Amino acid sequence: MDLGLKNRVYVVTGATRGLGNAAARELVADGAKVVVTGRSEKSAADAAAALGPNAVGVAADNADPQVAARLIAAAREHFGGFDGILVSVGGPAPGFVADNTDEQWQTAFESVFLGAVRLAREAAGELDAGGVIGFVLSGSVHEPIPGLTISNGLRPGLAGFAKSLADELGPRGIRVVGLLPARIDTDRVRELDGLSADPEATRAANESRIPLRRYGRPEEFGRTAAFLLSPAASYLTGVMLPVDGGMRHGF
Predict the structure, then answer these.
(1) In a 10 Å sphere around its CB, with 0-12 CB exposed, 13-18 middle and 19+ buried, how is residue 96 labelled?
(2) Which ranges constitute the DSSP H helices of 85-212?
């Protein structure tokens, strides 16, 4: 299936590893050009080099109020256009209600929530009809995940923002989509599993709750993201798509 991605230009934040990187890889594989971001010049440059000539790396922190305009300018400068953005960011500090400090909450709010709002707001002002804004969220949008209290607090609010934005931008032909990953086999998920006393038993227990009985592969998430960002999904907006092997049982 031709997704219509050839020569389209996207910004993908948090793309040096994990889900952002998986999405960037699949976009490039289908012919898109991407600006990928990381916290350091080296990590961003290394990620772009691994993706090939249709990628460029930019050091960026989603919490920086100036970063959105800079990334869109980079897309136009390097590739001559801007067709969409996928906002991904490393997960906030794990912990239960009594564990997480005000500082951790504030740091996560600036990066996970407010940073995403700023990126989406800037993109909305720069995109034409056919453009798309995507958010990498979490299954916690629908159901809290034990031990991830900060994420449980912020991700549902960001999903609500995305829904509102979809309503506002729809008349302009701009789509807004969200992806809700659960247990995708990334460094972040392995790190979280490793916090338990018995990581192997934890993984086995988690897999037993997934109807497909396994963690998702990063490329499976990446292909889903590439489809949602592509013209092939031109009538999908306001959707929050679980990428979870069937863990969510509700509608």
Answers:
(1) exposed
(2) 102-108, 115-126, 149-169, 187-193, 199-208
Residue at 251: amino acid letter: F
* Radius of gyration, CA atoms only, the chain: 17
- Cβ distance 23 to 86 under 8 Å? yes
pLDDT of the chain, 251 residues: tens digit per residue: 799 999 999 999 999 999 999 999 999 999 999 999 998 999 999 999 999 999 999 999 999 999 999 999 999 999 999 999 999 988 888 999 999 999 999 999 999 999 999 999 999 999 999 999 999 999 989 989 889 999 999 999 999 999 999 999 999 999 999 999 999 999 989 988 888 889 999 999 999 999 999 999 999 999 999 999 999 999 999 999 999 999 887 76
Picking from 84, 78, 68, 77, the residue whose alpha carbon sits closest to that of residue 129 is 84
Instruction: Please give the C-alpha separations between residue 72 and each of 69, 97, 117, 161, in angstroms, as whole numbers.
Output: 5, 37, 15, 21
Task: Encode 190-201: b = buried (16+ Cβ within 10 Å), e = exposed.
Answer: eebbeeeeeeee
CA atoms within 13 A on the CB side of 95: 12
